[in-house]
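Entry
Fold in token form

___
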Amino acid sequence: MFTVAGSKLGWTMVRGLSTFAAVVVTKKVVDTGWRWVTGNEPPHDPEDPDVTWQEAVTWALASGIGITVARLLATRKAAQMWRKWTGELPPGVRPAE
């Protein structure tokens, strides 16, 4: 079993690393998807006044939804792995009622 059972620091590290990895992969997926759908490079700075409102809002929605879902999936998977390693839910995660 994992030796940091109940450790908030251990859980923070596991959750942080899984979230970081998910965000990096998701950014590449969203960028590639943007290129495939629009045929253009994704906006580097949606706040730039030369970027149209439609493009800026669409980019914000696509990247925001993608990263939020990836973060959720990564954290859930990390919690499953934590429970497998320690036999307990991660610190701060309540069991389903």
Summary: The radius of gyration is 18 Å.
